[in-house]
Amino acid sequence: MTAAVDIQFYYNFRSPYCYLVSKSVWDIFDDYRANLVWRPLGGWSGRSDPDRAKVKIPLVRQDVKRWCRKLGIPFVPPPITTESTLAGAGSLLAEREGLLRPYIVEVMRAEWAEGRDIGQVDVLRDVAATVGLDSDALIAATEDPENLATLDRYAAEAQEKGVFGVPSFVIGDEVFWGNDRLDFIRDHLRELGLRNV
After folding, report:
1. CATH number where 177 lies
2. DSSP secondary structure string, 140-155?
3. For the chain, is the Cβ count within 10 Å smaller at the N or the C terminus?
């Protein structure tokens, strides 16, 4: 049997394309011998710079609205000023507690299905309650200098690997960018003989 491969998963909670992928990525880790190597990013890391984002937002929202309609999921964009760093830092605690998947799904639901600002502590407290994390521990994790430094380290690592957008997946030397590349990841894993029988 071929050994499992690591898939580095670069993610920024502010990206609507990460919202889309949060609804459809999990079978890769269930159906294939693949280890999720979580790489959350904060702030503008992995996203278009602020000036370019201003130009892109109307088009991106049209595009994501179409995707959401196709997937049958709600789309209620959060405030433009929403900041993702706290959610990214908090995800490191969720990962340590074995609650990463529900945390990702719930943060994205609050942000992109309900239009809530995930940069607000009360929103993250609600997420913690929903997924079974201690809310005080989550808030402490969002402010932990070590967690914030980890986000910066992952951003630098992403640049070194040629990752320029999110969501991105790195398997060995292969980089798969975008929510619409999941089938290519599945094909690649099949070619490597990693599908669970």
Report:
1. 3.40.30.10
2. HHHH-HHHHHHHHHHH
3. C
